[in-house]
Amino acid sequence: MKNIGKVRAFLTEFVLVILFFSLSAVIALQLFLKANDKSEQSRNLTMAYMVAEQTAEAIKSVDVDESLEELLNKKGCWYDKDWVTCGEAEAEFVLSLKVVAEKTVAGELMDVVVVVEAKNADEPLCELPVTIYRSVMEGGKA
Predict the structure, then answer these.
(1) What's the mean pLDDT when you consider all of the chain?
(2) Cβ distance 97 to 68 under 8 Å?
(3) Confidence bin at 49 (pLDDT 50/70/90)
(4) Are 114 and 56 in contact (CB under 8 A)?
(5) SS3 letters for the chain?
(6) Closest CA to 79 of 88, 67, 68
(7) Please, are residues 94 and 17 in contact by the beta-carbon 8 Å criterion?
(8) Is the pTM of this model over 0.85?
(9) Which pLDDT belongs to residue 63?
(10) Would the pLDDT of 111 be above 80?
(11) How confident is the model at residue 76 (pLDDT cuts 50, 70, 90)?
(12) Closest to 113 in 3D by CA, of 94, 99, 123
């Protein structure tokens, strides 16, 4: 009879220890998953800014005869999950330009916002404003 009480106490303690370690494992797993999500978000944000900066530099150096649409066609507008240019169907991220042009007597002032966004997101990952000026002389219309 005494042995049955000791066995029950041991089994109860053993079950409690297993429950404690199971709970600890679940919490640790959740922390690792959240850390992985944060790492992925950080990577996507970094890559979005790199793509936006590259595009902004390309806009600043674009030839007078070349339009911004031609630049986008050369550069690519869609990126997959590894940030490699791809087609629209398999794209996870989209690069777009918002252009506001103001013609002046001496040329054209263009405010361009480079926008990189996830395909299914409500807000863009990044928006990078760029202002360029093209004088009339550059276009060959003196």
Answers:
(1) 85
(2) yes
(3) very high
(4) yes
(5) CHHHHHHHHHHHHHHHHHHHHHHHHHHHHHHHHHHHHHHHHHHHHHHHHHHHHHHHHHHHCCCCCCCHHHHHHHHCCEECCCCCECCCCCCCEEEEEEEEEEECCCEEEEEEEEEEEECCCCCCCEEEEEEEEEECCCCCCC
(6) 88
(7) no
(8) no
(9) 66
(10) yes
(11) low
(12) 99
Residues 6+ apart with CB under 8 A from 35: none
Per-residue tokens: 139: 């276009």
Show the tokens assigned to 71.
């630049």
Please give the biggest Cα pair distance in the chain. 110
- The label of the residue with tokens 């031609």 reads 70
d(CA 112, CA 52): 11
Determine the Cα–Cα distance for residues 122 and 118; give it in Å rounded to an integer: 8
Are 108 and 102 in contact by the 8 Å Cβ rule? The answer is yes
- The mean pLDDT value for 10-38 works out to 95
* CA dist., res. 40 & res. 35, Å (int): 9
